[in-house]
Amino acid sequence: MNPENLKHLLSIKKMGIKDSYYIYFLFRDTEIVYIGYSKNIDFAITKHYKNDNMKFDSHAEIEIKDKEIDELLDRVALNILVYNPIYNSEIPSSCKYFKSLDQIKKKFRKNKTELNKHVKENNLKYVGVINGISYFDIREFYTFNYIKNY
Question: Within 10 A of 136 (CB to CB), how many other CB atoms are there?
């Protein structure tokens, strides 16, 4: 191991940063009021605690193993869409969840009328709504014959 790598590892250990990521939940009573993710869970919780605008009385975290890192943002996004915490104003950028049909239209370069027709014919539902913005699960649109070839 070269000296620079060793210095970096020692600084990580000194700061208390672990190799894992965490999804964390802030609670007020039993209600989830915020969902986030961090590699340095202690710092993240302390930062939120010092924020006078964010009121919470307990927290919980889930450690994400290395093999699950690719799914981290999707898991955070889905939890925010399911629980709709009051302090989350949007979901993190995710490869599975899109804010609107306009985003889906841009991704697949397709006509919005066709997308609306697909939503109606297949009775597709929003995954969730955050601050009045509806989110779709992009996987629902891969059922389109012309999108399958994308």
Answer: 22
10 vs 5: CA distance, rounded Å: 9
* Architecture (CATH level 2) of domain 3-83: 3-Layer(aba) Sandwich (3.40)
pLDDT at 123: 74
Question: What is residue 20's DSSP assignment?
Answer: S
What pLDDT score does 147 carry?
46
Q: Percent of the chain beyond pLDDT 90?
A: 22
Q: Starting at the edge strand that comes first in sequence, how are the strands of the sheet with 58-64 ordered?
A: 31-38, 21-28, 58-64
- Structure-token pair, residue 130: 């955050």
Q: How confident is the model at residue 29 (pLDDT cuts 50, 70, 90)?
A: very high
Half-sphere exposure of 119 (CA within 13 A, CB side): 17
**Structure confidence by residue, pLDDT tens digits, 80-127:** 888 989 998 888 876 677 766 677 777 777 777 877 777 777 777 777
Sheet strand arrangement including 128-130: 97-98, 133-137, 128-130
Helices (H), 23-66: 41-50
How do the domains of the chain map onto residue ranges? 3-83, 97-148
